[in-house]
Specification:
About 40% of the residues are buried. This protein is an alpha/beta fold and about 210 residues long. It is built from eight helices and eleven strands. The chain has a seven-stranded mixed beta sheet. Strands 7-2-1-8 form a four-stranded mixed beta sheet. It is globular.
Length: about 210
């Protein structure tokens, strides 16, 4: 399997394929969020429990609002946090539209979204025209990978392609995972690269 150009990688995604690609922290594996067939394949390839939701990467706020159902308070909070922390390793958990596959949400009716600071990851979502699944490119239970040479051979063999263009993932802490409650209240579900204190600096209450 050859290293794809960005154009060819977009074609894989548009054709409901599975792609391995770089993010700012680790290599990710993903697909279009509108393809239940491809989402199911990601679970199978990673040997991931179906009850676990899959996060996604967006290219802009328009893609966030296209797949979420938000009241005015949540819209304001999303916009304010995005200005301060996106692109970057802060993942928002938000109420999903009914059109979003329950496979993606793990039956939670919520979707996890972030705007990656990696130019390739963001460009893929933009070119496909919708968010793309961004689970770490590893078999469940194994460590995420920031060096392409360390990717699991089994994982690579089941993907429909990969794109390995610079910059390389930097590793480090995973993204911080927050559930937005509205009225400038967030619940931190996973501490990561963005600290709770830095969120508080912008007037948000952190649970």
């Amino acid at each position: 399997m050859q290293n794809l150009s960005l154009e060819s990688a977009v074609s894989v995604l548009k054709n409901e394929g599975i792609l391995i690609y770089p993010t700012e922290t680790f290599y990710g594996i993903g697909c279009r969020i509108s393809s239940e067939k491809a989402i199911s394949s990601v679970f199978q390839i990673k040997k991931r429990l179906l009850a676990l939701p899959l996060p996604a990467i967006v290219s802009d706020l328009e893609q966030v609002f296209a797949c979420t159902q938000l009241n005015a308070s949540l819209v304001r909070d999303v916009e304010e946090l995005a200005v301060q922390f996106w692109p970057g390793p802060l993942t928002f958990i938000l109420p999903a539209r009914k059109s979003v596959s329950p496979l993606l949400t793990g039956g939670t009716n919520a979707i996890a979204l972030r705007l990656s600071s990696h130019p390739i990851a963001a460009a893929l979502a933009k070119a496909v025209g919708e968010p793309i699944v961004s689970s770490s490119a590893n078999i469940s239970g194994k460590a995420p990978v920031s060096d392409f040479k360390e990717l699991d051979a089994e994982l690579l063999s089941h993907a429909d392609g990969y794109v390995d263009l610079p910059p390389s993932p930097m590793g480090g802490a995973a993204s911080t995972l927050i559930e937005l409650k509205g009225d400038k209240i967030v619940k931190v579900l996973r501490e990561g690269a963005v600290s709770s204190d830095s969120i508080k600096e912008y007037g948000f209450a952190v649970l």
